[in-house]
Every structure is written in structure tokens, then in C-alpha cells.
Amino acid sequence: MLEAKLVAKSESNQQTIIQLGENVSVGGKNLLIIGGPCTVESAEQMEQVATTLSQGPVQMIRGGVYKPRTSPYSFQGMGVDGLKILADIRERHHVPVVTEVMSVEQLPHVVEHADMLQIGSRNMQNFELLKAVGKVNKPVMLKRGLSATIEEFVMAAEYILAHGNPNVILCERGIRSFDNYTRNVLDLGAVVALKQITHLPVIADPSHAAGKRELVADLARASIACGADGIMIECHPDPERSVSDARQALSLQDMIDLVNSLRPIAQAVGRIVPTHNSKIADLNAHALKRVIQKEVKASCI
Ligand code: PEP
Ligand code: MN
Ligand 2 mean position to 208 CA, how many Å? Predict the structure, then answer.
């Protein structure tokens, strides 16, 4: 693997655990379950999501405010107003939030309000953005590019570490193929390979891979079965009316059912689906060689 010296597993670092909020981590025994809509649409929508999900089923809430839409005429996201909605639910529901940052200019705003920064597929090789998030004191979830090789994916993560930020989570979200029955192909082989090659936490996003809600739960279960450290799922109080990615959105009840169905699978592979009370710190519970959150020396934007 080229020169992936910082992200590759080593004698001294077999598995990085990243703290994402007071009681939330990823990379240890506890699985990370992220849920929420594709797009932040209103305060009411996010309130419903947080009220229903943050008391147990999920450890982190997602919602895009800067949206990478295929068409320039589609809704582009609420921007800073959406960030304020996320900041508000984070504060009142005590739940960490993740949202996408698409450009260096947006970075200070997103850093101010989110607990984790998402780099979307379309920006996986936006090297200036990778360098910029490398200088930030917030964990970064890097999504695999639509047709990026595993090596390109790993090297994109290497950029972020090389610029000073050790807290990177890899997210497999499906790759392009000849077949368009599913939106993309969830590459579980990549999940297995990345877990073997790197010490970084690896999560799966079956929603963008499947593109159809009826495929999401089984793919989520398969992801956990093959060793993913967590999943990110799109869900919405009124899925059919989602402003974006409606076809793949689960209802909030489907999300709860999905998380419950993960428990026996998690147990079979030695993992835990956190409950509200046990939401944490397996940080000490494991013979994992190195624990984070490392000091980020680089300046904090
Ligand atoms: C998303 O998570 O909302 C998203 C746009 O995903 P991706 O970058 O994987 O398409
Ligand atoms: Mn989406």
C-alpha cells in the first residue's frame, strides 16, 4: 500500500479508538450507530429525530446542511441556519452530531457546531479540503469516493493524518458498478480489507449503497457481521417526503427495529450495540494497544 505509513496498522497501533462525544466512541467494542435524515429540513424535523432516537437507538445524529447535489437546481441545504438547528439538538438532547463540509470556506462554521466532520464521496480526493481538515481538532469521517480504489481511499485518509489530525473514521458507502438495480455496490470486501490494513475505525453506510430502503437493514446487518465498527443510516420522520434521498430513507420506527436486530449479530462477533445507559467507555475494557483522543498539535481552525 503506497506510503500509508500513518494509517497502516503497526506494532504499536493495532486499533485506534476515537472519542466522539462525552459518552460516545468508535473503534472499540461498542458499535457506533449514526442515524438521521439525508438533509436537515427544519427544526421540527430534527427535534422529532432526536427525541425518538437519541435516548438509545443511536449514539450520533446526522443531517446534511451543505448538500452535494447532482443537479444545481436541487435544494442545496440550509447552510448556517441548518448548523444552528444541529447545534441546538446537540445541546438539548446531549447527542453528538455529524454533518458534511464541502469546502474550506465552510470549515470554520462546521467546526463550530459539529462533533464530527463528514467529507463526502465527491470530495474524497479534494486534497485542499483534506489538508484543511487535517489541521482541525475534530474527528473526520471520510467517505469512500464513488469509484475510488481501496488504495486511493487509504491515501486520502493518510493526507488528513499527515496534516496533523489523527482522528479519522473511514466510511464505505458503496461504489459504482455496471448494475443500477442498487444505487451502488456496498463493498464489504473493502470493510474487511480496511480493518486488516489500517488501525482506523471503519463504518458502513448501507443507505447510499442500497438506494432502496428495503435493502438497507440486511446490508447493515451484513456490515456488522463482517467487522464494521458502526453504521450510518438515513432515516426520517416522514421518509417519503424527504427532500433528498427519499427512496432510501427509513422511518424512525424502522430505524429502531433495525438497531434492535443488530444486537444478536453484534454479540456473535464480539461487539456491543450500546444502550442509553451503557453508552460507553469500552475505552478501558479492551486490550487495544493505543487509545486516543490524541492531542492535535496543529492549529485549531
Ligand atoms: C450523505 O451522507 O448525505 C452523502 C451525500 O453521502 P455520499 O457523499 O456518500 O454520497
Ligand atoms: Mn443522502
Answer: 6
